[in-house]
Every structure is written in structure tokens, then in C-alpha cells.
Amino acid sequence: MTDLSTYREELRAWLRAHAPAPGPATDVAAAKAFQAALFDAGYAGITWPTDVGGQGLGPEYQQVFSDESSEYELPTGVFTIGQGMCGPTVNDLGTTEQRTRYLPPLLRGEEIWCQLFSEPGAGSDVASLQTRAVPADDGWVVDGQKVWTTGAQWSDYGALLARTDPDRPKHSGLTMFIIDMHAPGVTVRPLKDMSGRSPFNEITFDSVHLPADSVIGEVNAGWHAAVTMLGHERVTIGSRRTAKTNPLDFAAVRALARDLGVDADPAVRDRLAELYTRERVLELFNARVRQETAAGNAPGARGSVGKLAGALLSRLAVEVVGEIAGPAAAGWEADDERGAGLALGITSSPAAGIAGGTNEIQRGIIGERILGLPKEPSVDRGVPFRELRVGTQR
Ligand SMILES: Cc1cc2nc3c(=O)[nH]c(=O)nc-3n(C[C@H](O)[C@H](O)[C@H](O)COP(=O)(O)OP(=O)(O)OC[C@H]3O[C@@H](n4cnc5c(N)ncnc54)[C@H](O)[C@@H]3O)c2cc1C
User: Fold this and answer.
1) Which of 110, 121, 118, 120 is nearest to 83 (CA)?
2) Does the pLDDT of residue 393 top 80, yes or no?
3) In the chain, which segments carry CATH 2.40.110.10?
4) Cα–Cα nearest to 215, from 137, 147, 133, 148
5) Closest ligand 1 atom, CA of 116?
6) pLDDT computed for residue 231 by the predictor
7) pLDDT in tens, 87-104
8) Which pLDDT does position 379 carry in this prediction?
9) What CATH class is the domain 114-222?
10) Is 84's C-beta closer than 6 angstroms to any atom of ligand 1?
């Protein structure tokens, strides 16, 4: 096995030679080509088992990859959900056939996955979801609706959470399925956010047939599969390093203040110092979580601390940019790349406090599981889902 410092040197040289310049929008074909090159060079699935195409290396090698690649904006975003969440869940809970069918193409960048959990009436309380999967002769038939599904417009497969037994309490009547996003009856409609982009979608399922072998794990054990996936999501978020090109990080905001000639203003310096301090503390916290994860100690509820702090930092950066740049933070000339970057950062930042669990939900987790505060009352515990009046219950 290559020692870590040689690995770092070789990776650094490879990235210098192969990392493409960032493009203005998601280019799926280019992303697939780059992922294939990563795979061929041995940098895909670094910690994944070798029998599904991974490298079988320890988390310290993944750490080196995260460190070195944070210097670039690699076009691997379309694979984050598949490789960071769905794939590891299939690896943990899937059958041998599922692992060998789905994991290698995911690593080679041939197939993209999405996560189909949230619905119009089920986000924070996702266990109240209503998409139904009903047994059929040779599998299941799915009807329902999902929303906010990131990347569904270019996904080949999805990890779908559906209700399979409404007579059980809400958490114990769910099943996770692999769904072919190109199957008849699946309709994907992109939704625009206020940045003007369409990062997510609304999906409807109209009598979609799923084969019997599409269940991930056990029937009616979907909540366990969902918790497994959310655990992988936390590790993925916690181990992510911010790209050095973030338009709203301290370095970028200080450069903006300097260029606008306000960096000597004591009030601006005060705010810059606050931004620097909170960014640095979060970096150190995340570095610690990464090291502990590498040592086999999963972050658990502390993942919520990093998630919440990141969302609050993003909100602070938006405030500081607004104070420094005034209206110029929201309006820019067509050829002003920095203005466009700032505007994108500003309009995208509220999503950080919603996606992957809202700030309030993270505060609830931190309160209960880290600070030991009393649990929220749960009036529906043990009640069959059919008897609940939740969301858009029909
Ligand atoms: C950019 C983005 C990408 C996303 N991608 C995906 C995806 O790929 N797949 C997917 O399945 N979902 C995805 N989501 C959905 C996301 O998980 C949900 O939006 C989120 O969980 C919140 O659910 P909701 O929008 O239904 O809000 P609600 O749950 O209805 O919450 C509304 C408000 O009530 C508050 N609230 C709710 N419950 C509590 C409580 N118990 N205590 C205190 N306050 C509470 C919330 O904090 C929030 O302020 C994405 C969302 C965004 C913004």
C-alpha cells in the first residue's frame, strides 16, 4: 500500500494535470467523464470495498483526498448523493446482487442517484410520508409524490422511502426501495429556487412498478435504512472541505472590503473579525470530527453541531457582504463575475439552514442528545399511521 505522503504527492500531481476549470453550470457529460477518469486513476471509492470497484483504503486516505481536492472545484457534485449516501446504504444493507449491480457503475460515474424522502407534507417529520407501495404479483406498485429531490433531473436511480403498511405506527410501516427514475409512471419536474437555478425537483409516481428485488434491507424496516442513510449523510457533510473558491468565505469578503476601500473602517473590521473567528472555529471543529471519524468514532449527534454552525456562518457572511457592498451585493453587470458569484452565494445561502434538516431540527437534536434536555412530546408514538391526522393524510 502506498504510504500517505507518496499518496498525497501523486494525487496532487494528478489533480494538477486533470482537474478541469469550473464551468458556469452543471455539465452532466463532463462530470461523468471526470468521474470515469478519477475511477481509472484509482481515486474513486477510496474507502469502498474492492469487490465493488472501491480501493479498500482507510479513511486517512479519504482525508488526504478531501484536503487536496478542496483546492479545486471538482465537477463531482452530481455524484455526492449517490456516492455519499445511497451507495453506502446499499453497501451496508443491500443484497450481494444489489451491491454488484449498482455500486460499480456508481463509482465509475455511469449512473447518478437521488434521495427520495421529502414530500409536500413530510419534511422534518419525514416518517409521516404518504407515498404508498402496495404489493403486486411480481413486486410492488408505487403511487405518490416527492419534493425537493436534488438532482432527480439527471438521476438514473433513486433511494425511495414509501409506506408499505399504514396499519403500523408511522416509523415501522416504511420500506426503502431502489427505483429506476426512467421507469414508466415516474415524472420529474424541475423546481427553481431564488437563485434562478433548479437544484431540485418535484416527482410524481403514477402506478410505477417495482420488481420484488428492489427492496433495500427488509420490508417495513425502511426507517432503519433511512437512519443508516442519514448517518452517512452526516459523515459526508462533516468530512467535506469548503472549496477555496467559496464567494462568501472570509478571504473573499475581506478582498471585497479592500477593493471597495472600506477595509480600514473599524465597524467593517469588527464584522470581518467575527466572520474570521466563526469560520476558523468551524474549520477546527470539522477537522476534529474528520479525524475522529477516521479513527472509527462516528460523529453521531455532533454532526448536527457542524451542520448548524455552517448554516449560521453562511447567514452571517450574507449579512456582512450586504453591509459592505450595499445594493451592489444584489445587482451586478453581465460581465461582473464576482458580482454574479456573490449573488449566487447570497441567494443560495438560506438552503443551508433547510436542506438535510433545518436549523430548528438540529437544535432539537443538540438539545436532546448532547445537552440532555427533555425529549419533545411525541403524541403519535405507537398509533397506527392510518389513524393519524398528519400533513396531507388522505
Ligand atoms: C436545497 C435543498 C435540497 C434538498 N434536497 C433533498 C433531497 O435530495 N431529498 C429529499 O428527500 N429532501 C430534500 N430536501 C428537503 C429537506 O430535507 C426538507 O426541506 C427539510 O427537511 C425541511 O422540511 P420541510 O421543507 O417540509 O419543512 P417543515 O418540516 O414543514 O418545516 C417548516 C418549519 O417548521 C420548523 N419545524 C418543523 N418541525 C419542527 C420541530 N419539531 N421543532 C421545531 N421546529 C420545527 C422547521 O424548522 C421549519 O422552519 C432539500 C431541501 C433543500 C432546501
Assistant:
1) 110
2) no
3) 114-222
4) 133
5) 11
6) 81
7) 999 999 999 999 999 999
8) 85
9) mainly beta
10) no
Q: Is 207 in the pocket of ligand 1 (CB under 6 A)?
A: no
Contact 125, 376 (CB under 8 A): no
**233 has a pLDDT exceeding 90:** no
**Parts of the chain belonging to CATH 1.10.540.10:** 4-110
Which H or E element spans position 140?
strand 139-147
Q: State yes or no: pLDDT of 230 exceeds 90.
A: no
* The ligand 1 atom nearest the CA atom of 359: 47
For residues 46 and 53, give the distance between their C-alpha atoms in angstroms, rounded to a whole number. Answer: 9
Q: Is the CB of 361 under 6 A from ligand 1?
A: yes
Q: What is the mean pLDDT of the chain?
A: 92
Computed from CA positions of residues 353, 354, 360, 362, in that sequence, does the dihedral angle turn out positive or negative? negative
Cβ of 364 closer than 6 Å to ligand 1, yes or no, is: yes
Query: Could you tell me if residue 204 is left (phi over 0), alpha (psi between -120 and 50 degrees) or otherwise beta?
Result: beta
Residue 169 confidence (pLDDT) above 90: yes
Q: Decide: 245 in ligand 1 pocket, CB within 6 A.
A: no
Exposure string over 364-385, b if 16+ CB within 10 A, otherwise e: bbbbeeeeeeeeeeeebeeeeb
Phi, psi of 272 (to 5 degrees): -65, -40
Task: Give the separation between CA 146 and CA 48, rounded to whole angstroms.
Answer: 30
User: What region does 144 belong to: left with phi over 0, alpha with psi -120 to 50, or beta?
Assistant: left
CA 363 to centroid of ligand 1, rounded, Å: 14
CATH number belonging to domain 4-110: 1.10.540.10
Contacts of 167 (CB under 8 A, 6+ apart): 173, 384, 385, 386
Q: What is the CA radius of gyration of the chain?
A: 22
Position 342 scores a pLDDT of 87
